[in-house]
Amino acid sequence: MRTKPDLSFSKLFNISFGFFGVQIAFSLQSANISRIFSTLGADPHNLSYFWILPPLMGMIVQPLIGKFSDKTWTRFGRRIPYLFLGAAMAVLVMCMLPNAGSFGLGLSAAMIFGCVSLMFLDTSINMAMQPFKMMVGDMVNEKQKAKAYSIQSFLCNAGSLVGFVLPFLLAKIGLEKVAPEGVIPDTVKWAFYIGAAFLILCVIYTTMTVKEYDPKQMAEFQQAAVAADNDDATAEFGKEQKSHALNVFIRVGIVQFFCWAAFQCMWAYTNGTVALSVWNTDVASSEAYQSAGDWVGILFAVQAVGSVLWATVLPRFKNIKVAYALSLLLGGVGFLCVPYVTDKWLLFVPFFLIGFAWAAMLAMPFTLVTNALEGGKSMGTYLGLFNCTICIPQIVIGLVGGSLLSLFKSVQGNMLLFAGAMIIIGALCVPFISTKRH
Asked: Does residue 216 lie within any of the structural domains?
């Protein structure tokens, strides 16, 4: 029976290259949502509510994309049609969102326009993002998956680096980072326009260089995976595989809950934390607050650099669970340090450590889950459902974030301490993940 062949580095790279552009869009969104809505006039206690929309749309969209793409076979591929459609939609919405305050709308109308744009942006980003995870699951054998997801993690973080620094760089070349009250600065607007161009070009590259396996080939690979595990008891293997996959799915999902809750806190409250601890301001319309917003992009870029470098180290670990847990612990230390650092340059250290956790979160969970699913016929459906382990914790934080902030005396830095505790708990759960079928 035919098994999935080893792929060259260039083929592994091409499968994930479009993710570079998608992540530029995602990083622009994650680094600037709180800044955009604060500039429009949102109360800090309400910021977490705006963060409910992205994961909510992801939880709805990604399982559907997974289910439908499992059954889609076209001359353009199985996952690629959804990838391209999502990217095209994202480009349009990225040109709309930063203009929420530019049409002379009142506060409420501008907020509604921003929320609707954000909803469509995250819907389209999720449509473009999920197929990359599925293509690795479809096209890469078990032996190479850790390497493939590490390449994807590298490209993801390289894209993040570009997205995070764009507003800062645009300010340096002369674009205005301060605008009339309620209007998004030009640095943010043009960063979104440039990010949209990167997104569509990178996705076009992947669609032109990747040829997905056809239904006949996929059927052969699935049969071979089952036969390799147990030639004499295929039915029994199927039951055992499903049980093992469910076990891995749940335990990795528990780790995911704590990790993604932590990063949701970081995305929502870093801007306010840094503005107060370094620039001594909480006035969103002030130049100091906008300078802090630009610097948060640089800090997230430092996180991306740490993640890119750590992604090259992760494949060297012989034990995937050791690599996963250690990465999360180091990231947790970074979170705990952020509120206590008052020098903008010294903030590079904790955000570099946070990048270690991010690298592991992008690679390790999908490696563990897709290995457990090897030989199954519904990879896309399972990975779509697995995305709920990313979305649910973000929604939970979105719903309770304002209450937690009030509980923590309205000090946004305390939300970063909470994030550190959450991700360390996640690290302590990693040893309970099973990596072998019984």
From this structure: no
